[in-house]
Amino acid sequence: MKYALVAAGCMVIQDILATFLVISESKGREWLAGALDAAMWLFGIVTTSHAVAALNGHNTAEKWWILGLVSVANVVGTVTGVKLGERLIQRDEKDLARENKA
């Protein structure tokens, strides 16, 4: 179950970062979005490597744990990311200036 716990934990973080990335892009924060994308990739590699290790193994219970916990982690990470991201990520001042000119 250790692979499943690590993979699920990393998936939560990856989904939070992914949601922050989308919010950042929509608010004109391209540099923040790029940094989040790089951080996401690191957590994604850990998630993938642990999931593949478990799914290639012979422990059927571990496979089910991976499928279940990572699926739940996807939902939890996205919901958490939306709630936090809307509060934490503000529009870029340049983006606001462009909107005011239009």
Write structural notes for this entry.
- The chain is mainly α and about 100 residues long.
- Helices cover about 90% and strands about 0% of the residues.
- Helix 1 (about 1-25) packs antiparallel against helix 2.
State the main characteristics.
elongated; single chain; mainly alpha; 102 residues
List the helices and strands and how they pair.
Blueprint lengths: L1 H25 L3 H27 L3 H29 L4 H9 L1
Helix pairs in contact: 1-2, 1-3
Main sheet: strands, sense, barrel: none
What fraction of the residues are assigned to beta strands by DSSP?
under 5%
Tally of DSSP helical segments: 4
Mean pLDDT: 90
Shape: elongated
Tally of strands: 0
- What structural class do helix, strand and pairing data support? mainly alpha
Radius of gyration equals 17 Å
Instruction: Provide the succession of SSEs.
Output: HHHH
> N-to-C terminal Cα separation, in Å?
55 Å
**Low-confidence runs:** none
